[in-house]
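[job 4471] stage=fold_predict status=RUNNING
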Amino acid sequence: MVLVVDVGNTNITCGVYEQDELKTTFRITTKIPRTSDEYGVLFRDMLSYNDISTEDIEGVIIASVVPNVMHALVGAINRYMDKNPLIVGPGIKTGIMITSDNPKEIDCDEKKDILRCMFENSRIAMIYGAAGTGKSTLLKELAKKSESLGYDTEIYHCSFDPESLDMVLIPQLKVCFFDSTAPHEYFPTLETDEIIDTYAALITPGTDEANANQLNEISNLYKETVKKGATALGEAKKLHDILEEIYIKAMNFQIIDAIYEQIKSEIQDLIN
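[job 4471] inference complete, writing structure tokens
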């Protein structure tokens, strides 16, 4: 049997092949801080749950987009399966045809050209303005108008304040409006990009100067609160990881995969 490992930024997806038959699949959360022993135990337990012994694994192939996890991952394979994994990279013959004469020469400029084609004739409107200057209200009105005209409208809420909107996307028109102020600042890069400045349009000149002390106090309090929140989330993440280690061993990933396939099929039926 051969264990194939696809390391992504979010999950590590694994499959076990016997000849051309896929015997089982399972997923592990990608976590750079994990040690080789942690990964090794997870691999061993996942295989054991699917009635596969590490001794049954004759070879391991890894493809990864997360370099920082590779040391621990390779160490886990070495120690717990006694195998040296084949790392898919430059020079490895995969049998996949690559049309570029030199894949290393596919640079950022070519990727940008591809993106330009994807977003050709699209329009992006970046909304600037301080808190309270009507950015979310404007987005809500734009979304309401778009829906009233019969367009499919995607609405993205603020993670800090779910009642507030950060972005409205109208795919059929190739139009996007979004709040481009901190903590998600974005600046024009395309000729078609537009700026809507609610502060300049709606706020009386001199307002900031007249209320400088109070605004600075609010700004500092906001930054301090966000910092405390980020620290609390970090602590919560540590507790979450401990719980995940416990429950992941009892997780039936085959059921999860079946649910995933069912949902995907239902979505495909709706599209068709």
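[job 4471] summary: Residues 64 and 269 are 32 Å apart (CA to CA).
[job 4471] exit 0
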